[in-house]
């Protein structure tokens, strides 16, 4: 009966949601009910798997509702204001969903197959909550774009409101995850090292997502203390060092390495100079310079690599640092 119900819901959500007026609220209620049932002690692993599939469909539709073109197919009519003010669930509703999703993931009775679906749901949630605005674009530039379209102060007020609400949601998401951080990181790390290839890839993507919402270097310290970052670097280097690795390894293995590489790249992107120094201290340049990239083994001068590491860790001037990095890139790749 539950399987039949889930199939009806998934088809209705995928193909008939446009017939309803308040789609977002209906999707939220379905998501909320599914997650509530999943966290129940009476819910078996099989039932939880079916309910999680329903949750995934609802979250995917919510994500489409948010990021779809505000003016439909008439993209010429879309303004910057339309884009930045795209509809989203209230922060309180998002926080409620994340809390219940965390509880569902940490349930006592579970399986790797179920957790893979829950990890995918968690990643979809973080994508839904991500800001449409690029954090690297200064607010002054956004204000200029808004003023170019329309005159008045309403656009500036809307921009400030959107930025404030997103910052509040990001901090709330971090706070909710941090309350169960030890259990979450332990569980995800276990699947990252001992799960199937599909489970490993999803687990590393979850760790990547945790780093992306980290505000106090809390998750960075968690990963460092467990040796996860060094293990990722070693796995990536070993994979790239193999002859014809892309042909001999399975596609699932490639996805796992891709997830590990994404996690390492996230360090330097999210933590800036500090993240780059962590990678250099682990020997990232030495490891990658010895890899069989582009089908050919490259010989590298160890002294040159050592000098570059010193430059990047702050022992020489900034201009010398930049020059050394360019040399490293040309040698390594």
TrEMBL record:
It is found in: Nucleus. It comes from the Eukaryota. InterPro entries: Nup186/Nup192/Nup205. Its main location: nucleus. Pfam families: Nup192. Keywords: Nucleus, Transport. GO terms for cellular component: nuclear pore. The keyword Nucleus applies. Belongs to the NUP186/NUP192/NUP205 family. This is Nuclear pore complex protein NUP205. It comes from Zea mays. The lineage of its organism: Eukaryota, Viridiplantae, Streptophyta, Embryophyta, Tracheophyta.
């Amino acid at each position: 009966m539950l399987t039949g119900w889930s199939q009806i819901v998934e088809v209705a959500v995928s193909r008939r949601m446009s017939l309803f007026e308040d789609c977002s609220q209906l999707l939220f209620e379905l998501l909320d009910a599914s997650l509530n049932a999943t966290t129940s002690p009476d819910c078996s692993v099989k039932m939880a798997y079916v309910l999680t599939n329903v949750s995934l469909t609802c979250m995917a539709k919510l994500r489409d509702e948010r990021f779809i073109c505000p003016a439909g197919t008439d993209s010429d009519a879309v303004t910057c204001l339309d884009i930045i003010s795209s509809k989203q669930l209230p922060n309180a509703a998002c926080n409620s969903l994340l809390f219940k999703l965390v509880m569902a993931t940490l349930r006592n009775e579970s399986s790797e197959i179920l957790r893979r679906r829950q990890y995918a749901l968690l990643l979809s949630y973080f994508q839904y909550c991500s800001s449409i605005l690029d954090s690297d674009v200064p607010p002054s530039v956004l204000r200029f774009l808004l003023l170019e379209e329309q005159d008045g102060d309403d656009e500036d007020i809307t921009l400030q409101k959107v930025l404030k609400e997103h910052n509040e949601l990001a901090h709330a998401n971090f706070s909710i995850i941090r309350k169960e951080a030890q259990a979450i990181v332990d569980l995800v790390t276990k699947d990252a090292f001992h799960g199937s290839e599909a489970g490993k890839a999803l687990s590393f993507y979850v760790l990547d997502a945790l780093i992306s919402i980290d505000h106090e270097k809390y998750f960075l310290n968690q990963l460092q203390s467990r040796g996860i970052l060094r293990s990722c670097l070693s796995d990536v280097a070993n994979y790239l060092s193999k002859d014809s690795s892309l042909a001999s390894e399975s596609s699932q293995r490639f996805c796992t390495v891709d997830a590990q590489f994404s996690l390492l790249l996230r360090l330097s992107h999210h933590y800036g100079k500090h993240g780059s120094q962590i990678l250099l201290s682990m020997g990232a340049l030495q490891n990658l310079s010895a890899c069989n990239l582009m089908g050919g083994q490259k010989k590298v001068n160890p002294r040159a690599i050592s000098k570059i590491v010193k430059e990047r860790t702050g022992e020489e001037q900034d201009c010398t640092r930049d020059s050394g990095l360019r040399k490293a890139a040309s040698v390594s790749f």
